[in-house]
Amino acid sequence: MKRVLSGIQPTADSFHLGNYLGAVKQWVDLQKDHDAFYCVVDLHALTVETEPALLRRRTLVAAAQLIALGLDPSKCTLFIQSHLSEHNQLGWVLECLAGFGEASRMTQFKDKSQKSGADRTVVGLFTYPILQAADIMLYQAHRVPVGEDQRQHIELTRDLGQRFNSRYGETFVIPEAHIMKSAAKINDLQDPTAKMSKSSASNAGVIDILDATDINVKKIKSAVTDAGKEVVFDEKNKPGISNLLTIHSALSGISITELENEFAGKGYGDFKGAVADVVTAYFAPVREKTQQLLADEAALLKILNDGSQKARAVASATLDKTYAALGLVPRNK
Ligand code: TRP
Questions:
Q1: Quick check: helix, strand or coil at residue 170?
Q2: Which residues does ligand 1 sit against, CB inside 6 Å?
Q3: pTM: predicted TM-score of the whole model, two decimal places
């Protein structure tokens, strides 16, 4: 079985619909026929200053949501990045291999550091992609399911892996990006030409999975729609209705053509009501399951610790092999 690894940052109180359809749903599918490793990358989240109690809660909420959304700890390895010091250890090795110029060319770093200015940019933001490379190569992952925005980081990972292998001998599997073409492109409900994103100007266009049903129903009912009154898919002239059709179809499994037929002659109001029903039916149980998992923190931590243990078996073997290849003298175990 091919191995996959991916990570998600605990930087929000809830995943939104775009995160789910763009990433998590595909993680769930991949666990069926892959040896899948998924981690909540809390160390990466430290690049943004966060209140400690909030980071702690968001990390647990992220893990609980992943399980509630379908990651099955008996089918995949789910863990918290900071539970394994190997990530930092391999990270340092890769930092000593990565060029300063190479790291400076990462567009996410350039964008973020330009926005905040050099004095407000932490060094961790600069080395972020190198820690990410360590996350991946520690597990000898073949494929890394990520969004298009992460492509450059995976390229860097490959470059570092190839450089290490050619300098010190075959040590790492060179991973491939598995770019997740979101089954569906989910846009903001208030600005349906822009991607649904937690950084969008207002939260009114973002469906947070853990939000109460009435909040999300209200957001859907106030979604921006288009001139005209037919429910038809036309991204260019009807971005609002097209986005709602996409959401309905992605969650209900009913094709867009069938939906167009079903709502022929009915108005936007009826259609929005149907979208709200589908979203509610899909996520209400997820919310409940997430709350159940969070209510028994000891049990949740046990699941995550079991995951860390499975992860450690792989990570520590890779680290030993890496250290030996570098000529670091092995310690007594
Ligand atoms: N940088 C990724 C993101 O923002 C998160 C991440 C950290 C990751 N480590 C990873 C993704 C390893 C894939 C593999 O989405």
A1: coil
A2: 5-7, 9, 41, 44, 132, 135-136, 144, 146, 150
A3: 0.94
